[in-house]
UniProtKB/TrEMBL annotation:
Active site per the UniProt annotation: 12, 139
Domain GHMP kinase C-terminal: 210-259
The keyword Kinase is annotated on this UniProt entry: yes
EC number in record: 2.7.1.148
General function of this protein: Catalyzes the phosphorylation of the position 2 hydroxy group of 4-diphosphocytidyl-2C-methyl-D-erythritol.
Protein name: 4-diphosphocytidyl-2-C-methyl-D-erythritol kinase
Enzyme class: transferase
Domain of life: Bacteria
Record domain GHMP kinase N-terminal: where: 68-146
Entry's Gene Ontology molecular function annotations: 4-(cytidine 5'-diphospho)-2-C-methyl-D-erythritol kinase activity; ATP binding
Kinase listed as a keyword: yes
Gene that produces this protein: ispE
Single biological process term from Gene Ontology: isopentenyl diphosphate biosynthetic process, methylerythritol 4-phosphate pathway
PANTHER family linked to this entry: 4-DIPHOSPHOCYTIDYL-2-C-METHYL-D-ERYTHRITOL KINASE, CHLOROPLASTIC (PTHR43527)
């Protein structure tokens, strides 16, 4: 690879999300089905041997650079490198809404780990990168591994899956939702019985549920309104702890017809569900 590389940092959907328990450390045990979207941010990494350290070319709105998951991921790799590494300048084209349940920050962290592992020639394995990623956020490992998967534990125990690669209308109701706040809500459904993960479940969208939906709809009426509208055309769900909601369609044209008729003012996009992450597709092309 050259000294500069631009890589995708895609969104994920939680096609379903069950909360099956709570761990002693307060984190919730989940069962979920992750699929990637062919839509997301792009990040350009340029090595700057003349300038040591990590620099973000522009801040992400409302996120101090030291808290930015891109910078935190790069620093975590620097710490583990065991030798001096060249500086890096990082430019992000941000498309994913924050607090959207699309895993934007986690995806940015994963793309950074994968990119700098290559550019700095650290040769860390996928397992090692996923372990570093888990310390940054529960959703980072699935983005590092790059295959649609059933997620268990807090999302780090991954079993590769192949749900249908349908088209989605993703809508972003006008609110940002803090993941920690939803997990701390008293009324959250926490006791869904654990099921045996089985491939048959991958295609059976009628069984998909998100246990955060009731609490989120109660706290954020704009999410409830969006779900009601989207449900007219088929099953619609919340992703993660929201705020984004999605409806599934068999073709792009079917999705676009609904997208064109959405209520004015609501943002979002149309995208295809993909089982190999666009990040990993691009890496394969570069090899
Ligand atoms: C809801 C999901 O998006 C589903 O994929 C993820 O589990 C959330 O992952 P994430 O945004 O990376 O979340 P983190 O940054 O790790 O966690 C934010 C906060 O949410 C709570 N949290 C998160 C994940 C989890 N399984 N149980 C929790 O209780 C914890 O209080 C944590 O401090
Ligand atoms: N590079 C980044 N991009 C977006 N958010 C970031 C980034 N770095 C840190 N953050 C912080 O992470 C928070 C969550 O952002 P993110 O876009 O991951 O939300 P999300 O889609 O709801 O995530 P999840 O589905 O994992 O809960 C933001 O509010 C922000 O404070």
């Amino acid at each position: 690879m050259s000294q500069s590389i631009t890589l995708p940092s895609p969104a994920k959907l939680n096609l379903f999300l069950h909360i099956v328990g709570k761990r002693p450390d307060g984190y919730h045990e989940l069962q979920t089905l992750f699929q990637f979207l062919d839509y997301g941010d792009d990040i350009t990494f340029t090595l700057t041997p003349e300038h040591p350290g990590i620099r973000l070319r522009e801040p992400v709105d409302g996120v101090p650079d030291d808290d930015n998951l891109i910078v935190r991921a790069a620093r975590a790799l620097t710490d583990i490198a065991g030798r001096p590494v060249p500086g890096a300048s990082i430019h992000i084209t941000k498309r994913l809404p924050m607090g959207g349940g699309l895993g934007g920050g986690s995806s940015n962290a994963a793309t950074t780990l994968v990119a700098l592992n290559h550019l700095w020639q650290l040769n860390l394995s996928e397992d090692e990168l996923a372990d570093i990623g888990l310390k940054l956020g529960a959703d980072v490992p699935v983005f590092v591994r790059g295959h649609a998967a059933f997620g268990e534990g807090i999302g780090e125990i991954l079993t590769p899956a192949n749900p249908p690669e349908d088209w989605f209308v993703v809508l972003k109701p006008d609110c940002e939702i803090n993941t920690g706040k939803i997990f701390s809500e008293q009324g959250l459904t926490r006791g869904t019985p654990k099921m045996k993960i089985a491939p048959a479940f991958e295609g059976d969208a009628s069984r998909y549920r998100n246990d955060c939906e009731d609490v989120v709809c109660e706290l954020y009426p704009e999410v409830q309104k969006g779900l009601k509208w989207l449900s007219q055309f088929g099953p619609a769900r919340l992703t993660g702890t929201g705020a984004c909601i999605f409806g599934r369609f068999p073709t792009e044209s079917a999705a676009r017809i609904i997208w064109e008729s959405k209520p004015s003012g609501i943002k979002g996009f149309v995208a295809k569900g993909v089982n190999i992450s666009p990040l990993h597709q691009k890496l394969t092309e570069l090899k």
